[in-house]
Amino acid sequence: MIEVDAAPFAYRFDPARTALVVIDMQRDFLEPGGFGETLGNDLAPVVEIIPTVAALIGTFREKGWTILHTRESHAPDLSDCPPAKRARGAPALRIGDMGPMGRILVRGEPGADIVGPCAPAPGEIVVDKPGKGMFHATDVAEILQARGVAHLVFAGVTTEVCVQTSMREANDRGYECLLIEDATASYFPAFKYATLEMIRAQGAIVGWTAPLDAFRKAIA
Ligand code: TIU
């Protein structure tokens, strides 16, 4: 077992039973004209973490440990997009509308791609998910069970939406979850810090948090 100096106390994991989960590092959330910007968000806080997420992916790659990437996206006919999700709010463009990177949040469009520095390598798992959580309407449970995974290390965007939802889903399914603090971001920095606090409060009620540096020191 490897022990990471994490909060609220040490996080222990067996690399053979661990997967890195990189949530939704897609152009639609990180680049101008994508879903995130159409919702009215400032992209700067999420763009900032790209190099750290890439470094974390590189660390897992060097070790040959399991890496799973998710993409929030919908079928071209939007059959997996609840009408309520598309109708919500007053975005500049709605899910399925044509934007500068193709149709917003639609599978196979340029905007749904993962940004270059975080792009999946051959052999890494890529899961398209129609919801915020990675277990909803996906094969993630079966994929992780088939590999005997018990520990999940989380990164990606956004901290309080898809990362937190996926981490809570995983926690309820019995996974031991660690969120890498500087490899996740929100459009709202205050929401990121609140999420980190609520995850690790009450004796790691949802899971642990640690900076990338602490994770790397632990495995060195
Ligand atoms: N809007 C927002 O903060 N996030 C999302 O809609 N999806 C993800 O977090 N991936």
Listing every helix as H and every strand as E from the N terminus to the C terminus, the arrangement reads EEEHHHHEHEEEHEHEHEH
Output the number of helix runs.
9
DSSP, total strands = 10
Q: Which spans have pLDDT < 50 for at least 5 consecutive residues? A: none
Strand content: 15-25%
Large-scale geometry: globular
Roughly what percent helix? 25-40%
| Cofactors, ions and other ligands in the entry | tricarbonodiimidic diamide
Mean pLDDT: 98
What kind of sheet is the major sheet? Answer: 6 strands, parallel
Rg, nearest Å: 17 Å
Distance between the termini: 13 Å
* Strands ordered across the widest β-sheet: 7-4-3-8-9-10
Describe this structure in words.
By secondary structure, the protein is an alpha/beta fold. The protein is built from nine helices and ten strands. The strands form three sheets. A six-stranded parallel sheet has the order 7-4-3-8-9-10, sandwiched between helices. β8 (151-157), α7 and β9 (176-185) form a beta-alpha-beta unit. The mean pLDDT is 98. The structure holds tricarbonodiimidic diamide. Tricarbonodiimidic diamide (TIU) binds at residues 24, 29, 39, 72, 132, 157-158, 161-162, 187.
